[in-house]
Amino acid sequence: MKIKKMLAGMSMTALMLGTALTGCSGDKEKTASNGEKTEITLAGWGSSPEETKLLDEILKDFESSHPNIKVKRETIADQYMDVIKTRLIGGEGPDVFYLDAFEAPGLISTGTVQPLDEYIKEDFDLKDFEEPLIKAFQNEGKTYGVPKGYSTLAMFYNKKMLEEAGVEVPKTWEEFQAASKKLSNGKGVYGFGASPELARLYHIAQAKGGKVATDNKATFADQKVVDSLQPIVDMHNVEKSAAEPKETGATWTGEMFGQGKAAFVFEGNWAIPYLKATFPDLEYGTAELPEINGKKGTMAYTVSYVMNAASEKKEASWELISYLTGKEGMEKWTSKGFELPSRKSVAEKSGFAEDEIRGPLVAGAPYATVWADDTNLPIIFNNFNNQFISSFLGEQPLDKALKAAETQANKEIENQ
């Protein structure tokens, strides 16, 4: 497959790096009968000190309840996927590791991720997970990962700005455009703080029936996709009611919103602790994203725990995955609000579904878009972003920009 060619084509230097790193797939699984512990490795990327501390606490709880298993945690701070791919090729991959839904189709297609179906028992209750989240890690009827948490996008709005302008919280895209225009003052304050990238626009791009990707090729130059995204471009170039963060001196939309330079932003769960810590006096609310053509839509971002297909410690690895994504483990992991529970029962028990701020994020989970089952998403993503921004900034028409991006993306896909 094409992804296999890409992985196989990595340099010998990269492969030597993978071999040098400590792996765990080469040791036979030890059992309790000989009094020795089975050591498994869990690899993930860096996170905040608070998240790291919480995960360490949960892993200690796991080891206490599973005295025959020891977990060695590895943090891959830079170029996470490149390192993971290199190690998997070299037979030195971790037993369990993080896998983003964005990268899942491509990595699953290589055969390096273990299907979990033989380990998943009825009492694990796979149906308890929000359907779009679990489907992101399924392929041809098999389940390859279990989502550890997620966030959707919600519309964050500045209560004071809306009240002073006499604007109601918009529910449709047309209402949103009108409100954004009214809330822009032409002096550095905009109605909409936009993130002009596919990660935030994917669901909007497909709102009118077009497809960003089809059969592992870019198809986002489709007129239906152009028509879906044109209003965002027009908000910036025609209505002057939208801007990206750096146009206002901000680094991201959360900061732009906190500084009062945008009345609306589409953000995720991660923005909540940031706003609390950085702008504690800000009065804001959240709502589900505006409907487009009478339909609700949002993005969902999720990461799963997956098992290395080459691991010789699969039983112990599944014990870890099932604990971390089981009801008890997930309740502990999401207790601080860093992520939302991917299990519906845990979300209900935690109160997040009824929470004034997080409720709209939870409400979007059942209908959220979690990328596509496409092995070439990274190439498609990069080329879209490279050209869309030029159209957003008024440098070229949207249809021309997306056509150029699509042509380049498919050329790169063909040359893999």
UniProtKB/TrEMBL annotation:
CDD domains: PBP2_UgpB. Transmembrane segments: none annotated. It holds the Pfam family SBP_bac_8. The keyword Nucleotidyltransferase does not apply. InterPro entries: SBP. Residues 1-22 form the signal peptide. Keywords: Signal, Transport. Belongs to the bacterial solute-binding protein 1 family. This is ABC transporter substrate-binding protein.
